[in-house]
Amino acid sequence: MLKVVILISGNGSNLQAIIDYIQQRRLPISIEAVISNRADAFGLTRASQADIPTQVLEHQRYADRAEYDQALQDCLTRYQPDLIVLAGFMRILGPALVNAFHDRIINIHPALLPKFPGLHTYRQALAAGETVHGTTVHFVTETVDAGPIIAQSSFPITPPDTEETLQARTQTLEHELYPKVIEWYAKGLFQLEKNTVIWHNDEKSL
Ligand code: GRF
Questions:
Q1: Which entry of 102, 109, 120, 138 is annotated as an active-site residue?
Q2: Atom of ligand 1 nearest to the CA of 108
Q3: Largest Cα–Cα distance in the chain?
Q4: Which of 11, 65, 171, 174 lies at 20 to 30 Å from 206 by C-alpha?
Q5: How confident is the model at residue 201 (pLDDT cuts 50, 70, 90)?
Q6: What is the CA(106)–ligand 1 centre distance, in A?
Q7: For the segment 167-180, what is each residue's pLDDT rounded down to a tens digit?
Q8: CB 151 within 8 A of CB 199
């Protein structure tokens, strides 16, 4: 059984997609806990409805990033996770935390990295006149949105696309891609070695 902890800050639509995918396929994956840095994150309600334990660690209650990261590390350690899944977790993880769980933290970013790291990816893509947009799942390293890429999924941008339509289409792809990547990880189809994603067969084709 692969033990997973999922970190969120908000709506948790990716969390829901992961919960549903695991349940529907009866995968040997256990979501041990959902941790949020915001008490009002709707994802906490989704987790409770699925009988998944929740933890709230509000960053405002800590003096600085190092203190917060230590508290988060302590919390994560208690669950002994095989994989930590960032699903809309709007906090940057410091180097100590990233190193503590080296090669076991993944994130989903709403753009085709390395294009458009950071915030407002849809606005950035439209302003740049892009013809394609999408989403990226990657390992988390010390540099934000720059870790080794595991998988991407994309769609064409067509006028009159707006930030809202790009978000809707990107999130639809995210809800398909992220659960699959977690399933592939559970099956040992890929791993991080020396900062490179190593595949053990070609099942990543979507
Ligand atoms: C997703 O679009 C993800 O790419 C980004 O934050 C969003 C989270 O949405 N990191 P949700 O909370 O899963 O609905």
A1: 109
A2: 4
A3: 49
A4: 11
A5: confident
A6: 13
A7: 999 999 999 999 99
A8: no
Distance CA 9, CA 201 (A): 34
Q: What does the alpha-carbon distance between residue 203 and residue 206 come to, in Å, rounded to a whole number?
A: 8
- pTM value is 0.96
Q: Which of 39-43, 114-118, 151-155, 197-201 has the lowest mean pLDDT?
A: 197-201
Q: How far is the CA of 12 from the centre of ligand 1 (A)?
A: 7
Q: Ligand 1, atom 6: nearest CA belongs to which residue?
A: 88
Would you say residue 8 has pLDDT above 60? yes
Residue 84 Cβ contacting ligand 1 at under 6 Å: no
Calculate how far, in angstroms, residue 178's C-alpha sits from the geometric centre of ligand 1: 11
CA atoms of 60 and 49, how far apart (whole Å): 27
Q: Is 134 in the pocket of ligand 1 (CB under 6 A)?
A: no
Judged against a pLDDT cut of 60, whether residue 203 lies above it is answered with no
121: exposed, middle or buried (Cβ count in 10 Å: 0-12, 13-18, 19+) = buried
Active site residue 109: yes
Does an H or E element contain 123, and which? helix 121-127
Q: How far is CA 60 from CA 11, 38, 39, 115, 206, in A?
A: 20, 9, 11, 31, 40
Span from the CA of 166 to the centroid of ligand 1 (angstroms): 13
